[in-house]
Target: Mammalian cell entry protein
Amino acid sequence: MLLIAGLTAVVALGGVIGVFGFRVVEERAEQQQREMFVNAARRTATDLTTIDHTRVEADIQRIIDGATGGFREDFESRSGPFAEVVRQAKSTSKGTVTEAGIERLADDQGQVLVAVTVETSLPDLPEQEPRSWRMRLTVEQDGDEARVSQVEFVP
Model:
């Protein structure tokens, strides 16, 4: 009898440990996904706001490389005219992400709010004051990577 009670206790304890172990693994995977999504959103927000007229093609390609879906298609289709405007204006901008965090997470997609400060310089205008922008970026997991599928500016 004592042996059966002992074995039952060991099996029950093993089940409890298994459940807790599964939860720890699940939470760790979710945390890694959160970090991956926030990092992808930070990188894309920086790329979108850091454009130099002397290397605009490389800057545009960096944005496209981090994009997917409708955002990628839309940005690619508008990249030629955008590059031309940047070159003609001799514009240079540098974005710095000041804050970023997950707003919503579901399966392989999340929305990340990002606050960015942008410094812009144009040769024919006096020094511009830095501007603060907020963006909501939809990020999708693509295998081991995360890519931005939508960008919207938030008031």
Q: What stands out?
A: The chain has one domain: 30-154. The beta strands are 51-52, 92-106, 109-121, 131-142, 145-154.
